[in-house]
Amino acid sequence: MPEKTYHIGVEATIDVIGGKWKPVILCHLRHQTMRTGELSRAIPQISQKMLTQQLRELEHDGIITRQVFKQVPPKVEYALSPYGETLVQILHELCLWGEDNVERRQANGEDVQILDRENVPN
Amino acid sequence: MPEKTYHIGVEATIDVIGGKWKPVILCHLRHQTMRTGELSRAIPQISQKMLTQQLRELEHDGIITRQVFKQVPPKVEYALSPYGETLVQILHELCLWGEDNVERRQANGEDVQILDRENVPN
DNA sequence: CAGCATCCGAACGGATACTG
DNA sequence: CAGTATCCGTTCGGATGCTG
């Protein structure tokens, strides 16, 4: 009996890139390699613990790469792995849908905003 | 100051369709309207409490519709709303990616399986 | 059949302090 | 700068029992 059984494809996807932070991290890594501190500044709400933890898991699942520069002070760069690159299209669509969703909620009178859009319609 | 601030589009998306169960529920509703019991049987691992809770949230966010038939025994049908339909493409891709991911892990010697594929390559 | 309420353990996730 | 370890409150989520 397999140790892990999924009933539908999306379950496996969520298992790897699901959660509160992973999609955000991956979205930032879509366009560039980033150092730990850069990611931390790009995602101000995340705690240092969560950031490291999520990066470790993404690395373990082969989605991102972690390159350590042996120097003082330390320097570590994270980037999408070739396999992680297969997610960029989906990540892009997830970003766009979220932007549309916020617009929709604003039009609906909700007090919500989004700081960085990657698509400015019209 | 807005009560809800997102820094990037994908955050808003995750806020609405993120979590362990919502993507699975939505994937099932892509192709058909389903009754509560049908969903429950289609997702055997979910508890009744979680199923109801997630359905309520999806309904509240305008992703699905809930139609109650006034009869005994009760009958309730859930379906994607027109707005929810804007997610079908993304959901489809999430399913496919997960299926590929499982194949990749299997090829890597991991003891993992997926029961229902929607795309059987080759 | 569909749903609500409650209890309770597990996991998530933040704050802080410390290391190479 | 990057990362580890610990403490601890909050939320998640399962199990059970009950209602119309």
UniProtKB/TrEMBL annotation, chains A, B:
GO terms for molecular function: DNA binding. The keyword Transcription regulation applies. CDD domains: HTH_ARSR. InterPro entries: ArsR-like_HTH, HTH_HxlR, WH-like_DNA-bd_sf, WH_DNA-bd_sf. Keywords: DNA-binding, Transcription, Transcription regulation. Residues 1-106 form the HTH hxlR-type domain. Gene3D superfamilies: Winged helix-like DNA-binding domain superfamily/Winged helix DNA-binding domain (1.10.10.10). This is Transcriptional regulator. It comes from Levilactobacillus acidifarinae DSM 19394 = JCM 15949.
